[in-house]
Amino acid sequence: FFFFFFFLFLSTFNAMAGVQERSFIAVKPDGVQRGLVGEVIKRFEQKGFRLVAMKFLQPSEDLTKEHYIDLKALPFYAGLVKFMSSGPVVAMVWEGQSIVKISRVMLGETNPADSKPGTIRGDLCIQIGRNIIHGSDSIESANKEINLWFKPEEMVSYKSCLAEQIYE
């Protein structure tokens, strides 16, 4: 009887452990210009996350306005929109367990001066207005941002051969 419940618990736990979420990550124009795209990708790959979509584009002002619509009332909104549409961006969708929470830690604080060494912003940035990367701050915003930047057919679904080495 005990073994039945233990097996049931273990099966449920393993199923929960396999739950994958997605996050939108974008290397901003300053990160692209500084040649940091590979470094960002490297860090996400080394962490064990799986890249499921990526595109290189110069976003329109309309796309950038929509992306940052929740910041519209803030004084830096116009400058942010202008900057984000000023040059090429690498837009990506990454997948993995707890990726939204973990990627926010990997990015560091919005203000690089407040970011710890070892984070992307802590290691690679100096000013808040040139913090090289955007990452979704919640599952809800990740879904919104992914749907804004990517069509469903642009997403690739595959099982990583390393999944068993990364997840229990």
Give the CA-CA distance, first to last residue. 25 Å
Radius of gyration: 18 Å
Order of helices and strands: HEHHEHHEHHEHH
Give the low-pLDDT segments.
1-16
Q: How does the major sheet shape up?
A: 4 strands, antiparallel
- Range of strand content: 15-25%
Structural class of the secondary structure composition? Answer: alpha+beta
- Kindly state the percentage of residues in helix: 40-55%
The number of helical runs is 9
Shape: globular
Could you tell me the number of beta strands? 4
Mean pLDDT: 90
> Order of strands across the biggest sheet?
2-3-1-4
Keywords: ATP-binding, Cell cycle, Cell projection, Cytoplasm, Kinase, Magnesium, Metal-binding, Nucleotide-binding, Nucleus, Phosphoprotein, Signal, Transferase
Binding site for ATP: 28, 76, 104, 110, 121, 131
Active site: 134 (pros-phosphohistidine intermediate)
Main location: other
